[in-house]
Specification:
The protein has 14 helices and no strands. By secondary structure, it is mainly alpha-helical. It has one domain. Helix 1 packs antiparallel against helix 12. The longest helix is centred in the C-terminal third of the chain and has 31 residues. The two termini are 21 Å apart. The model has no long low-confidence stretch (mean pLDDT 87).
């Protein structure tokens, strides 16, 4: 099954790479074409977050291992962590943003690579982080001012924070981070080399192309929804039914629908509330990134606790 998932991911990476090239060329030749923030929000809510909508199943597994019988314990803990992230973001926005970017970098690097890796070495964990940093530094490299404007919309008003960013840009630190990211990709490509490892560079160049031609929000949305989320969903589908992708996919849709729908409702209520204080597009940006942070922290913590206790 693992070999089949790997081949599926290779085909997916190739298809994504070709599609992104065509998509980017079309948008480069037609400057009037615009993907609105609302469209990005719709894609993230409908496709992007769906791969985390089965966390309650993993939560049940964790509770069984810990011999806790009440599922409410999981829901209360999961929601409390998410709400705590939002509260901490309001109080310490700069620190919360930095932590979110660092943790998200590790998460993206690991989830997009570890299905190729047969060991769990500590050095690999660091390399996952360097590889995932590309998601953060690519928009800073190609659209620095636009990325800064997004940070400001996320309540980050610290002058020291922006001085750090200007320092990073002025002293060419971003190319150094690029070098670390590509070095980690080369390592994973050469380590236990197989033809399937080429997907590492297909993903690498797809991310660069996205961020070169498109705005930071659109580039992130397309990566998050159609590369990261779809890839993670593949593994969930095969966990639900190792013998039939079609049946596993139908089960995945059925099980993911309730929490996805609940998340959409919460996002909609939050957007309606923020629209009273901010421009519509600005409110959407806050909802997308602060909301994703509130979902990402408990999602990653659950993955970590489950793997640790399963061992």
């Amino acid at each position: 099954m693992k070999n089949y998932i790997q081949k599926l991911n290779l085909h997916h990476s190739l298809f994504f790479f070709l599609l992104i090239n065509i998509f980017s060329i079309i948008f480069d030749q037609n400057k009037n074409l615009i993907i609105s923030p609302f469209t990005c929000l719709f894609l993230i809510l409908s496709i992007g977050i769906s791969h985390g909508s089965l966390d309650y199943i993993k939560g049940k597994k964790l509770l069984n291992i810990l011999r806790i019988n009440n599922i409410l314990f999981f829901y209360i803990s999961y929601i409390s962590i998410g709400l705590s992230v939002i509260l901490l973001w309001i109080i310490f926005p700069a620190t919360s943003l930095i932590l979110f970017l660092l943790i998200a970098s590790y998460h993206f690097g690991k989830e997009d690579t570890d299905f190729l890796i047969n060991n769990n070495l500590v050095t690999n964990q660091l390399l996952y982080f360097f590889k995932g940093l590309l998601i953060v530094v690519a928009p800073l490299n190609f659209h620095f001012e636009e990325t800064i404007s997004i940070f400001k919309l996320l309540l980050v008003e610290s002058e020291k924070f922006y001085l750090y960013l200007v320092f990073i840009e002025s002293f060419n630190i971003i190319p150094i981070i690029f070098l670390l990211s590509i070095s980690s990709s080369i390592y994973f490509f050469l380590n236990n080399f197989r033809f399937i490892n080429f997907l590492i560079f297909l993903d690498f160049f797809s991310i660069l192309i996205l961020n070169y031609y498109l705005s930071p929000l659109v580039a992130f949305t397309l990566y998050f929804c159609f590369l990261h989320s779809v890839r993670h969903s593949f593994s969930l589908i095969f966990e639900l039914d190792p013998h039939s992708f079609r049946n596993g996919f139908l089960i995945f849709l059925k099980k993911a629908l309730p929490l996805t729908a609940l998340t959409i409702i919460i996002y909609s209520i939050s957007l309606f509330y923020l629209y009273n204080f901010y421009e519509f597009n600005d409110a959407i940006l806050k909802i997308i990134f602060i909301g994703l942070a509130s979902l990402t922290f408990p999602h990653i913590l659950l993955e970590y606790l489950l793997k640790k206790n399963e061992k």
